[in-house]
Each structure stands twice: as C-alpha cells, then as structure tokens.
Amino acid sequence: MLAVNPAKIPFFELRLFFLILVGLHSLVESRCHLPWTGVWLQNGVELNITHNSIGNLGNCVQKGRDLYLLTSETSRGPCYRCLITFPVHENILHYKSTQCIFEPNMSLERCSQLISADVIMHTLFRKDASVVPCPIEAPLNFTYQSSYGSCSSRTSHMHRCSQYDRLALHYQACPEVPNREAAVWQMECIGSWRSFGQSYFAARIGQRFGEQYRCFILEKSGTSGRIGESADAGCQELTHIGAATTTLHFRQDSPIHPSCEFPSSLFGNRMVRRNWESMVFGTTHRILNDTWLSVVSGRNETVWSCLRSSQITSTENPLEFTFRTFVAQGCKVGYQCLKIHQRAPHILHIAYGQISPTDDFDDCSEFSVDYRDTLVLQGSKQACPIRGKHTVPSCEVPLLTIGCTDKNSMELVRDCKYPQQDEFTCVSHYKNADNDFIIVRDALSRQLICMTYISSRINLLRVYDRVSCEAESVNGSPPSLALNFTSTEGCTLTASFLYFSNSSPSHRYMIIPFLFVYLFKFSGVVRLIL
Question: Residues 300, 170, 237, 129: what is their CA dihedral angle, to the nearest 10 degrees?
C-alpha cells in the first residue's frame, strides 16, 4: 500500500477527507441492526423480526439505544413509527409504539417527544422459547381470587410434573364461586425479571383447548406469598398485584423425599448405569438408586420415588420385589405399587398398580394390577432357540429361519405370496408354563417383539406387538401373527480353507486346510465332520 504523508496534502482536501469520514461514521451509526431476530408472538399473532425489520411495523431506518425509527410504504406515502423497547429477558420483549406518522422530516429527536408514559405497553413472547426455572417452589397449596369471586373454602395445590421444569396447578371448585369449575393447568416458565422493585415471570400455560401466554407478578415473604396473573398475553395492566385478574394466596408444602432404594442389580453402579427398554411403550428406563425414570426423547415421562420396598420370598421366583412409590406420570401425581420379577439379569417383568391421589395404603403385598410391562436391558443379545429352517408344504421357501446365518439371527416370512423376509435379532428366551418365550428386536424398526413357541404337540409360533412378554399378558392378547409349521430342516454352515503364503526362501506357497465343517441335522442328531 502506498504511504501518504498528511503534511503534503492541501488543507482544503484534508478538511474534505475528514468531513467524508464523519459523514460515513454518522451513516453507520444511523443504520439499524435489531438484536432480537426470530419469530415472536403478540397476543397469539406471529411477528417476525429480522436484523432490519419488525413484522408489519416497518423497516428500521435509524436507532439510538432503545429508540427506533421505522418506516413502511402506504398509499398515502411513507409511514413512520417511533418505537421504544424494554428487553427484560431473551424470551420476553416489551415495547411501545406510535401510530403512523406522515411527516417527511421524521427523526429520532422527534420520536423522543412523541412517546409518552401513557402509550400502551405491548409484550412479545419468543415462539418456541426454551424453558427456564420458575421463581416459585413446588409443592405448594393456595386459595385464589378471580373476577368470578374468591375461593377460600377449598384448598387448591401446585406440584411439579415428571418433567421438572413443568408445574401443574389444580384449581378446586368452590360453592361460593358457582361459575368456576375445577380445572388443571400446566405451566412452563420462559423468563423472569425485576422491574421497579417488583418480581415478574412469564409462562406458557395450557389446558385441553390449547396453549396461552401470561405474565405473573410475585410477592413472597418466607414460605408464603401472592402470585398475580395478567388477564391476557398483553400484560398491559399488570403494574402491581392489585391489578391482577387472578390472585393466588399460596403457602409452601413439604416435598416428598425417597426413603428406600431399588435393587442395585437394576441400576448397576456409578461407573456404568444400566438403561432398560420397555416392550409395551418403547420408553427408556433409568434407575438411579432411589429414583426410577421413564424417559421419552430425553424428557421424563414418569418418575417413581421409592418409599418402601420388600422382597418376596418364593422358591419359584427368588428375585421378586414389591415397592410402594410416589409417582409423577406427566402432571398426574400420586402413590403406586410396583411388583418386579427379575426373570434374567437382562429381563424384568413389572406389574403396575393404579395411581392413588392420596396416601391411603401402606402395604403393597396385594394390589390390583393396572397394566404390565417387560423391560429389556439395552444392548442385550442371546443365541436364538429352535435353530433351523421351519417350513410348511404350501410354501416353497422356509417361513422361519433361525440361527443359520448367525446364532442371534432370525428371518421371518409373514406372507408366502410375497416372500420378503423380516430380519430380527434374538434378545432373550425363557420357558414359562407351556410356552417358550422369545424376545427379538426388529432390525428395521428396532422395536422389541414378543414371540411364543409351542412344540409339545404342534409347532406353533405366535407374534405379539406391544405386549409384555409373560403369560398373564399374552394369554389375554390376540397375536398379530400365528404360524403353524409342519417340518423343520437343519442349517448347513460351510467354512472355507485358510490360505496363506510365506515369503521365506526355504518355503514355497503353503496351503493348509484350516476347517471344513458340515452340519447335518437328521432325526435330531447333529453330526460334525472335520
């Protein structure tokens, strides 16, 4: 680059150069770059904010701190709007805006005169905002006062759901408020802030008819306090708690803590945690000492806390346990009995009792079973039983091939007219009553499937989808497929010779027959020929 000595530049040219620099600096300063890009919601209506525009409010032409001058084209000519923002949280944005101004010489100085304190405040909520911790602790009980009246004769309550960042508010119906019915609302906080000495937070709240956004104001003293809710998503009136549409008077409750542990064989150790997979629901189960989690897509679906445990003394099933638990299933909480039979180190059969909202039972030795499930330790495999090619006279190809390509492999043809094979991996097999149970994993869908095989009188294979793989469940469920085989052929495995060469001068190419194996199955006798 050519160096220039300023001392040799004429004075008027140097002055012009600095004027251009100042003009360019002013132009850069006047350009807008909006920092809250994304899709926002204003009273349920989407508003898209880019780096230089705010939805239908206009394009930014000039800015100064939190004050912006926007413009948009109309039939009357350029429309100017003055907008001032109050960003209280990354998910919450307050702003005030003027109406359209048709003045050709609009400026930021003029905007500062037009926006006054009585201009309506608007609130934007970031769409799909990430959840943040709520500034209130659950569980708690409360009474409430709304536009329908005051409900103080019944106690409502709030608790955490299985997803710890979600709260459930159970509103009780009261005789003194005839127009208000009992309802359950779910709440997820998306932001909290302080303004003029007041504590606020915003949340998504939902019921059966959909999801809404609200602002809340919080007053807390020790273990009690008040929560005020805005009338709608505008949050305009919520300047103090007396202006809230609904007010909750709350008091903190004592949380329920676990008081026992699940068997260590179920959760492994600190270094290696065991994950189990549900055959019925496909959920992942993680057992952490005193807490049992059922997880879907990384989020808790059900959480059990161990309250009391006992081992069932039985010679037939030595690894049976019962547990009395506190459970959160979604946003439904209560007490539940569990019965666990560890069929094998990698197989659990579980019977679940009904969820009771009150702690009105202490013994889980006998309880009414609500549903059953089988859990399989993730990563488990076991050699398949009933090895061979199972056929019927009406089909040219074997309908079932087990352990022929690999000891863990199974190929199943569901329809002889369309002999396309479904591939499975054997996970476990065990005998119960008159059935041989086989658990396999579908190679395509990765779903766990239960099969039963009866070989005492007939060769009958039944396939069950989304059924617990034990006698109580399969006896009451219709199979998705039943195959009756008339004959079974053995597998033939052939291993070739092993050839290798040695480059040593004292050796020529050497060919050594390593292993040549034929397996024949005839009249139940397996012959090995070397």
Answer: 10
pTM of the model: 0.77
pLDDT at 316 (0 to 100): 61
321-328 long-range contacts, CB within 8 A, separation 24+? 321/263, 322/364, 322/365, 323/260, 323/262, 323/364, 324/361, 324/362, 324/363, 324/364, 325/292, 326/256, 326/258, 327/302, 327/303, 327/355, 328/159, 328/160, 328/161, 328/162, 328/300, 328/302, 328/303
- Using alpha carbons, list the distances in angstroms from residue 360 to 139, 330, 364: 19, 22, 12
Whether the bond into 139 is cis, omega within 30 of 0: yes
C-alpha gyration radius of the chain = 36
- The predicted-structure confidence for 279-290, as pLDDT tens digits, reads as follows 999 999 999 889
Rounded to 5°, the CA angle 366-368-371 comes to 125
Three-state DSSP class for residue 110: helix
By DSSP bridging, strand 299-312 and strand 183-195 are: unpaired
Residue with tokens 């068997």: 263
- Token digits of residue 462: 């039944």
Question: What DSSP state is assigned to residue 273?
Answer: B
Residue the block writes with tokens 């009246």: 149
> Distance between CA atoms of 94 and 39, rounded to whole angstroms?
15
Q: Tokens 């009771």 sit at which residue?
A: 356
- Length of the chain equals 530
- pLDDT, tens only, 483-508: 888 888 888 743 332 223 333 333 33
Q: How confident is the model at residue 457 (pLDDT cuts 50, 70, 90)?
A: low
Q: Give the amino acid at 11.
A: F
Q: How confident is the model at residue 207 (pLDDT cuts 50, 70, 90)?
A: low
Residues 283 and 445: their CA atoms lie apart, in Å, by 14
**What sign does the dihedral 279-280-283-287 (CA atoms) show?**
negative
Helix intervals (H) in 236-337: 264-267
**Is the Cβ–Cβ distance between 250 and 227 less than 8 Å?**
yes
Q: Return the structure tokens found at 225.
A: 């306090």
Give residue-wise pLDDT tens across range 144-160. 998 888 999 999 999 99
Structural contact between residues 404 and 348, judged by C-beta atoms closer than 8 angstroms: no
Separation of alpha carbons 48 and 41, rounded Å: 9
CB atoms within 10 A of CB 78: 16
